[in-house]
Amino acid sequence: MEPRIQYAQTADGVSIAFCATGEGTPLLWVSPVAFCHVQLDWQTTFSYLFQPLARNHRFVWFDWPGTGLSDRDAIDFSMDAMVRSIEAVVSKTGLEKFALTAGTSAVPIAVTYATARPERVSHLILMDGWAKFSEVEQSAVWQAEKVLRVKDWVIYTETFMRVLWGIQDQEFA
Known about the structure:
7 helices; 21% strand; 6 strands; alpha/beta
């Protein structure tokens, strides 16, 4: 069954698209910034991950402001604005205590939220993240990715989707 797309509003009036589905322990997924679309993530991009998680959890995920189905005019990407987005979704879904998981660029945001609201976060699950972007920026992988992105966009996008994300469907990639 396709989850219903809903909307939460931040304290400063930004509309955030989210989905909530499943039964069990609450689990909030914090997507990497700019890599989210609640509907497509469920259907294609993260279906291999989201759908099994929803079988055993009250699974919640959302689009950041300016991305996916959220308010496209929102331009505040400060840490405070990101935390407000999480808080809006948490409030609208009625989550009281939940596991919080994040990967890559969302890790610092999830850590900031968990630090500000430790009474709400039962578990913090972090994947492939960093504390300071400068740590990533100097890595050999990031430097190679940057050169490929700048020099050949087609090869970069195909490599990104197929190698880094493991997407085998040529049309989707």
